[in-house]
Specification:
alpha+beta; 2 domains; five-stranded antiparallel sheet; two-stranded parallel sheet; elongated
């Protein structure tokens, strides 16, 4: 059977390869093998696309922290970003559904035979407006959460004045600020005020302790 990869995932893979050009690809994958074909899987080309090859709506991207691509942190970034195209993500014995699934954007225990600790699995929705939506995912310039394997909850990266990105928005929201993703003078002042009020070290930098308080 002829098949092609969903355009949204083609875009995702292109952005990952552009950001981490030297990453390993040992566990990369799109269309499934015979084992996948014997069961229900988004790695199978099961979506019938009018006038063309059937569509595969899932990819795997190799976990390679030494090459710069930490798939565990990337999976958490996808959860925080809440892209509407996502159907579900599997990473390191956890699964998360997108907006249309059960417990949207919340990690749950994954008990499948493949723990997905060597790669992250991303599936997109079967709606053509979503799976063939080739708009940018926002990977270039994004700040990714720090990953600490022993912890069950990932702590976002330390942020300070002058930085930009989605992780800045995560701090601005509980601080009651205008969410623009820019760590400027007003955000720094709000962080210092928050730190003073909560008995934290007042430096205007959102590190592990300040994150812990903000996300509690």
């Amino acid at each position: 059977m002829q098949w092609r990869l969903a355009l949204s995932l083609v875009r995702l893979r292109e952005e990952v390869n552009s950001r981490w050009p030297n990453r390993k690809k040992d566990s990369d994958g799109a269309v499934g093998d015979a084992a996948h074909a014997s069961r229900s899987s988004d790695h199978n080309p099961w979506i019938t696309d009018q006038g063309g090859a059937n569509v595969v709506s899932a990819i795997d991207i190799t976990h390679d922290p030494d090459g710069g691509f930490d798939s565990y942190a990337f999976a958490e970034w996808l959860r925080l970003r809440k892209d509407r195209r996502i159907k579900y993500v599997i990473s390191n014995r956890k699964i998360m559904s997108g907006s249309a699934g059960p417990q949207p954007w919340v990690w749950r225990k994954y008990s499948g035979s493949n723990p997905h600790d060597h790669h992250v699995h991303i599936s997109v929705k079967a709606d053509k407006l979503e799976y063939d939506n080739g708009s940018l995912w926002g990977i270039q310039g994004a700040v990714f959460p720090e990953h600490d394997e022993p912890k069950t909850q990932t702590v976002p990266a330390t942020i300070r004045r002058g930085m930009k990105g989605h992780v800045i928005e995560m701090a601005q929201k509980p601080l009651g600020l205008t969410i623009d993703g820019i760590f400027g003078r007003k955000t720094e002042a709000a962080v210092k005020e928050y730190q003073l009020k909560h008995g934290l070290h007042v430096d205007g930098i959102v590190g592990p302790q300040t994150w812990k308080a903000l996300l509690a």
